[in-house]
Amino acid sequence: MDPFCLKKLNEERRARRAAILLTDIGDGRDRVIRQGDPIAGALGPAVRTAFLSGRSGIADVDGRSFFLNVHLPPPRLVVIGAVHISQALAPMAKVAGYDMEIIDPRTAFATQERFPDVVLHAEWPQDVLEARPLDPYTGVAAVTHDPKIDDPALAAALTSGCFYVGALGSRKTHAKRVERLKLLGLADEQISRISAPIGLDIGAASPAEIAVAIIAEVVKTFRARELQPLQQLDRTA
Hints:
Helix content is about 40%, strand content about 20%. It contains nine helices and nine strands. Helix 2 crosses helix 9 (about 230-235) and helix 3 runs parallel beside helix 8 (about 205-225). This is XdhC family protein. InterPro entries: MoCofactor_Util/Proc, XdhC_Rossmann_dom.
């Protein structure tokens, strides 16, 4: 691999940005394509499909063969609230392959004793997310039931292109949440992306069952990226 391409790929990895190492099989030349880069001609759809699926492979375009080596950031799940649901969700997320972290300024809840193997931030979401920005490969689940904690995180998620945004609460609770988010300047189209009540509808009642519903919906939403129209990726890049 060209050392310049390797350096560029490492920069994209550190920034949690998706990239493809494109190799012309005919002459061996490499180039790095970042998500959202304009790609002219028939190669464009192949590149967009590769970003959506996350699968590497060969594309034959205009009589030439290219190998697309896809590098996607590892999916991340940010949970707002160090509650019982989060305790059940943490091992499920790990098994499913998601890097999970929890944000909750309530130090009585956000303790290493309750979450021994989880990245934990006992700070306000807006402070944490300024230092650790959200991105399209991050899902956000707000489960504190406290607007002072949940709302800033939801607003950040909706303006960062997160692949999943969910919030705990009844439909009545969510209706009030919608009005608060509108006051923060979010549009109806943005707010409509929130999954509320959170998780797949499996009749979940206990914290563990709700956690199952959440991780199932997170996985379903992330995998559904492959089924999106090709233009969707360019709009969210």
